Amino acid sequence: MRNAMGRNNxxxxxxxxxxxxxxxxxxTFLVCRYAMMSEKHARYVGIMNVASEKVAKSxxxxxxxAKNVFDEVQKHMxxxxxxxxxxxxxxxxxxxxxxxxxxxxxxxxxxxxxxYQPYISKADDSEEYVVSQIGxxxxxxxxxxLYKLAKxxxxxxxxxxxxxxxxxxxxxxxxxxxTPLYDETGKLACICGADMTFEWLxxxxxxxxxxxxxxxxxxxxxxxxxxxxxxxxxxNDGTCLAYPEGKSITIEDKDLLNNLKKHRRGITDxxxxxxxxxxxxxxxxxxxxxxxxxxxxxxx
Length: 300
Fold this sequence. Notes:
Blueprint: H1 2-75, H2 80-89, E1 97-104, E2 118-122, E3 129-133, H3 145-151, E4 157-158, E5 162-165, E6 171-182, E7 188-197, H4 199-214, H5 216-222, E8 228-235, E9 240-242, H6 254-261, E10 266-272, E11 275-283, E12 291-298
Antiparallel strand pairs: 1-2, 1-7, 2-3, 4-6, 5-6, 6-7, 8-9, 8-12, 10-11, 11-12
């Protein structure tokens, strides 16, 4: 009987030890899986942070180029013709800017019958710039909401993105970088601005994605090779402003939309064009810009 009891005790010990080993293996698996998931999340957040900084740097570059034109206008406000020449003088600095304008206060140039707003823009499907005159007694731009907003600023600022259809019938999202200019007495002379589509940001995102996917360390350790990802730029209302061709995303999640408005970071799962995906998003760290960068990670 003692032998039987000994055998039973031994079996119990073996079973307990086996159970403990299984528990330890299970815990080890869970810890490893959690560590891998945490690592993956951290890396995609890192990609998003790098993209955000590069987008901000690109925005600052656009501002600098626009300010160079504005400075020329500031120096040459002695005649309407001088203003046009100043607007045209540095258009080659940034081909991504589709138009420059100077909207003068009423009667700043009396010879122009009150309103004067020359606009230098690229001709359709051409790299050449043409001059047009905007504003008249029947279209007083000085009463528009944007002009009034610009008058309240003491420095350059970005407009809210807007939709515009060009003469070819193509609808695009646009934005404008604008600044008030003053005459020698300190009186407001005009609002000067540079208009652009978001094609420049689309090109920037393409380069950002290419660089991250070519990064040797990133491909070896940081992300799953069977997961595709790409970067987009979102407005604070969820509108997808810049994205790879055919890869726009639609934001309907209320929490995500609320976070965009409040310039918060976050991670969320959603379906993108019928494919499960994880979105890593955060604000672009640039003054007067309510945009966010999002890395869209598609699950196979």
